[in-house]
Amino acid sequence: MTKLQTAIAPARKNSLDFKKNRDANLDMVRRIRDLEAILRQGGGEPAIKKQHEKGRMTARERIALVLDSEDSFQELGLFAAHDMYQEWGGAPAAGVITGTGLIQGRLFMIIANDATVKAGPFSR
Length: 124
Known about the structure:
single chain, alpha+beta, 2-enoyl-CoA Hydratase, Chain A, domain 1, 3-stranded antiparallel sheet, 3 strands
């Protein structure tokens, strides 16, 4: 990835305020990435195991199978319904995985219901 040149003066870049802001932003990015990893688990390991025991692949596994490369998938709704419906176990990504990705070199919109959420904790 190409890095853009900064317009921040070296004196400013070495200031305590700049370093505090940089550290706070890096921490925020780390926390968001940690949350993304949790949300990508959908209904969690027990729900994923249940799908596998039934001989089914999870929605994320099916998506990965059809994509040219997992790197080509740009997920759109990962934070949908975040922190909602907690009384029913939550609804990561609103139980639906949406995004765009390359399949055979063409860009497609991909939508898959996540059974680890909808058939798992959300449907109690």
